[in-house]
Amino acid sequence: MAAKETDLLEEMDLSSVECLNQATGKDWGNALKQGYREDAGLFCASDDDEQLIITIPFRQIVYLSSIAIQGPADGTAPKVVKIFVNKPNLSFDNCAKKATEQLTLTADQVTNGEQLELDFTQFQNVRVVSIFVDSNQGGGDVTNVSKIIINGAPVHTTNMSELKKC
């Protein structure tokens, strides 16, 4: 029986999230943390150019089923997003490699925060997910992400040390 799929916010290790190229005062917490991500006036913004890498570790192994990435309708919302699994030290140099999945978001999808299905076979046994925002809707130098919701479920494993001999 499959576990019930839900928002994996409670499974995220928020104390260990990293974001590369975020603007000061407009960090990843605005897009991920409960309460902040519901406020349309708050967002995670890129700093030097349109690219961002948000690396999210989980407290336990999970599988991912869908993702929603939301941004404003002013052309600064993400367009091309690459998702990498179990690459905890992802850098901008590594992002040219083949991603686990690449999404090209339409303006409607990103403005509405539409949940997009992920290839289930590629998103099992996930310890860390890295989201690389490659470009934005308007082609400008700043990308704004107002909300990220990742759906899935924990992968229940057997603790071998708890098994008793027969």
TrEMBL record:
<dbReference type="InterPro" id="IPR045099">
    <property type="entry name" value="PITH1-like"/>
</dbReference>
<feature type="domain" description="PITH">
    <location>
        <begin position="1"/>
        <end position="166"/>
    </location>
</feature>
<comment type="similarity">
    <text>Belongs to the PITHD1 family.</text>
</comment>
<dbReference type="Pfam" id="PF06201">
    <property type="entry name" value="PITH"/>
</dbReference>
<dbReference type="InterPro" id="IPR010400">
    <property type="entry name" value="PITH_dom"/>
</dbReference>
<protein>
    <recommendedName>
        <fullName>PITH domain-containing protein</fullName>
    </recommendedName>
</protein>
<dbReference type="InterPro" id="IPR037047">
    <property type="entry name" value="PITH_dom_sf"/>
</dbReference>
<dbReference type="GO" id="GO:0005737">
    <property type="term" value="C:cytoplasm"/>
</dbReference>
<dbReference type="InterPro" id="IPR008979">
    <property type="entry name" value="Galactose-bd-like_sf"/>
</dbReference>
